[in-house]
Amino acid sequence: MSRDSFGSRFGALVAMAGSAVGLGNLWRFPYLVGENGGAAFIIIYILLSFLICLPIFISEFVIGRRSQKNAYAAFRDLSGGSAWRWVGLFTIIVPLVVLSYYSVIGGWSVEYLLKSVTFAFESASQSAMSTMFSDFVSSTWGPLLVHTGFLLVTTLIVVVGIKDGIEKFSKVMMPLLFFMVLAIAIYSMTLPGAKAGLDYLFNPDFSKITGKACAAALGQAFFSLSLGFGTIMTYASYVDKKENILFQSTATAVSDLMFALIAGMAIMPAVFAFGLNPQSGPGLVFETLPFVFGQMPAGGFVAILFFLALLVAALTSSISMLEVAVAYLVEEKGFSRVWACVVLFVICWVVGAICSLSFGPLSDVNIGGGNIFDFFDNLSSNILMTLGSLLTVLFVGWRLKKTDVYDEFTNGGTLSRNAKLFGVLWFLIRYICPLAIISIFVSGLL
Question: For the chain, which domains are there?
């Protein structure tokens, strides 16, 4: 059976950028910036993204394209059938865990898009917006319905395949997403008092940088770039051998960073323009911003644009998460693509439903000081992705042959620029990345 693949360089690039650009940029990044001191956090985030996360991204790319197989088979075959294959299985399970609670937030973006279309935020007080959000997430059927809808759309895109489903969706939606967020940022920066928000984003206060802030920055970079849970590996396995790994990886990392910064410029100037607290945590997007939209000129239309962008960003990432396990079931277990998608839809729906209900009927269930949803979020971004990334760089740096990594990174020695940079990359993968991951992970725990 012939294996599906991306049909063009641009298609592969926007699909990978879509995997990286998601709720991590528009929902998670702005509130983490708010909680960890603004510009200083952004500087640490940028440094970690390119010194630590880009080499990890390239490592995943090498594994996926070298093997041309799903994540499990990639580790199995490249390690000669050793125990490393279980790392491949780990990278298939993790995206299902993430997708399960991610689709709950995706559902919230559906709900708030519908609310914005009906101009539900106009002239409402900030307390009314907080009440609206808490009443919605603590209810039973509304969140479950939109969670189901979001997951269903994700599944339908993946069912169609790589070239006709994921690639076509990404080609249309990624440019649209960029222009929507850019338009909101330009508008936000024209508001009276917006300069304070830009100062907050770009004037660093390094006294705010702690081990916990560095751990949060690294966790956010993993979450945003889809590292440590098989998505890049799986997408890379569909990329043509002639493509330049360094170019594709760097372009994806730069796109992801640009989206995060533009999202910050779309959100923080508006928050400061209305004298609100930037440290609003996860409620920033669903509580603080709707109030801002309700107060600003033409805010109803800005709200529609923003929550449409949020939904598109969520979908471009969710399809990559689902594809990891779909590829495994199709190639290793003989499932048809349709049945693989159906089975995984059910699994993610059940786990996601439990996460959704943890704000309402299951709110009394406490795990590690938080509800079930918080447990899954912290487990994924702070432990599972970090562990997956550590194991990936250890595999590439210490299990694969250096000559094989060089061959894949330089396209058989034909890419001279890649060849010149390989020594630096190899040093980062073997030594700097593992040590940095371990030290930041430990400091975050302490």
Answer: 9-445 (1.10.4160.10)
